[in-house]
């Protein structure tokens, strides 16, 4: 009796710890290309695995009958039943997954301004009336001299040339943004203000942010940032013409036209300016 008991114990132990292996290869149903990193799970258990670079998988199962679930991003989930007979291994061959179109909600990206009541940074805003009243024929950065911590002066001798510092940081550490989009030089982060002279006529508001922050953050905006937001298309139909001359001979002519809201719902705005003088 003692010998029989030992034999039965060994048989029960082997059946208790026996594991079955399901193998196969996962491919795209249309192209036939192998799919890697497909998640495979034996439903109702913690057993599973993923496919390799060739789409091959090998999953161990503690049950003789069950269902495999195949899941992969962009593809429809697939369920395959398996059943073992005498052999502890089973090859499912090619498993084809069909692609699935996933529709996403609409995403709107718009230019934004830092909210002074929400952002823990120092922010100054300059509206269009202040720009027209104080800027005149000066380069744009000189308008910021009334802002604490900001200093600007003319440089280079050409019309519109200027340098800007915020809290001691030079221009290569200050981000210039146009409607929230960085426009600093890619190579060195500098800004040639003479290239943006006509921008002041189209500026609705300018926001100066001192110090780095989450809002209006350009790649080089360690010292701060200047975000220039332009006008939207105005609905009223009309336009204006302006002529400006300085005591040292600089002249500026600007023309603004707006179509108003047309029958097709569109609105077209035009703004052009011409400057001439000795600098």
Give short descriptive properties of this protein.
Immunoglobulin-like; elongated; 3 domains; Ferric Hydroxamate Uptake Protein, Chain A, domain 1; single chain; 279 residues; four-stranded antiparallel beta sheet
What does this structure look like?
The chain has 279 residues and is mainly beta. The protein folds into 3 domains: 79 residues, Immunoglobulin-like (Sandwich); 109 residues, Ferric Hydroxamate Uptake Protein, Chain A, domain 1 (Beta Complex), CATH 2.170.130.10; 39 residues, no CATH class. The protein contains 2 helices and 17 strands. The protein has a 5-stranded mixed sheet. The chain has a 4-stranded antiparallel sheet with strand order 3-2-5-6, with no helix packed on it. The longest helix has 15 residues. It is elongated. The termini are far apart. The relative contact order is 0.11.
Assign the CATH architecture of the largest domain: Beta Complex
Question: Kindly state the mean pLDDT as a whole number?
Answer: 81
CATH topology of the largest domain: Ferric Hydroxamate Uptake Protein, Chain A, domain 1
- Overall structural class, as computed from helix and strand content, comes to mainly beta
The share of residues in helices is under 10%
Radius of gyration computed on alpha carbons: 35 Å
Beta content comes to 35-45%
What's the shape? elongated
Treating each run of at least 4 consecutive H or I residues as one helix, how many helices? 2
What is the CATH homology-level superfamily of the largest domain? TonB-dependent receptor, plug domain
Spatial sequence of strands, sheet with the most strands: 8-13-14-11-12
Find the count of extended strands (DSSP E, 2+ residues). Answer: 17
Major pleated sheet = 5 strands, mixed
Query: What is the CATH class of the largest domain?
Result: Mainly Beta
Question: What is the succession of H and E elements?
Answer: HEEEEEEEEHEEEEEEEEE
How many distinct folded domains?
Answer: 3
